[in-house]
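Give me the fold.
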Amino acid sequence: MDLISTLGDTLYTIAGMFWKILWALVLGFAISGAVQAFVPKRRMVQVMGDDSPASLARAGFFGAISSSCSYAAAAMSRSVFLRGAHITAALAFMIAATNLVIELGFVLWSLMGWQFVVAEFAGGVLLIVITALLMKIAAPTSAFARLRDAQSEERDGDAEVPSLTSLAGWRQAAANFVMDWSMIWKDIAIGVIVAGALVVWVPDDFWQALFLSGGADQSVSLLQMIENALVGPLVAVVSFVCSVGNVPLAAALFNGGITFGGALAFIYGDLIVIPMLLVYRQYYGTRLAATLGVILYIAMAVTGFVIDLIFSAGGWVPDSSAVDVGTMTFFSLDYTFWLNLVFVALGIGLWLLSRQAETEGHCAHHH
């Protein structure tokens, strides 16, 4: 295979992956922008004040509807924590905001099939439960409380939340949409580029060795399930990708022989990539950040393994050849084409609306 055709293949795969997930991203960020504009923050503290199951469930729900990339989720999680939410509830919020979000479901469906969507959401709930248990057993919640007292922001009252019919509200939603994009488009681009390059450049036998896999036709052993669930998040740590950005890479790994649970654990791993650990360190100090990293890692590995067992027992694990990214036809006149058409138009509309909000803001400042 000569260099030119390899490069051509790589660029084609990258463009194709991006094309497949485009509409899902626009839809997800549009919903997220609207939620941020129309749901007041003070509601969050009222409903997330402790680590009871009900509080965690509500935190998970709020996280799921205020979807964002892991970096934005970490920032939002810290802001609800500093405004009075329990640290475990704030973590549940962050896990949900990266792993139970709408656009992730859409992207998973378009690249990996419905089984992964179901497993991702069931696993996301399990991940929150295990994290909460580990926080109860091991985590210095009192240390977090002291940290909050030391850093406590002036508890700002919320500005008025606009009504759903107000133009100002939708301008705000559009501005949030643009801001979310501007914050994470680099992550998504890196994720898709890295995934495309790995699909084309890394030979299958490398992945098969890493994941103890004997190729597509061989059945998965218990040892392999455990090892893959442990290795999955670690591969994520070094691949630096945000939650939606790593789905294409998960598809490539699943294709290369990682187990179903290993692929899931990998997708969850975006919460412990090196830049995220540095963010935690900035927020919570080195010791608490390290504790958090370890707790999240254990929770991810256990979740991947448990979901793998359940899905294998039920016979619901998809065939990895069904997810062959290398031979996928990316561009055709199918539903992806029409959805992209609709949502790109929507994205442009929101962008124009946010520009309008900016110009109005500048005018107001001058008067």
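The chain has 16 helices and no strands.
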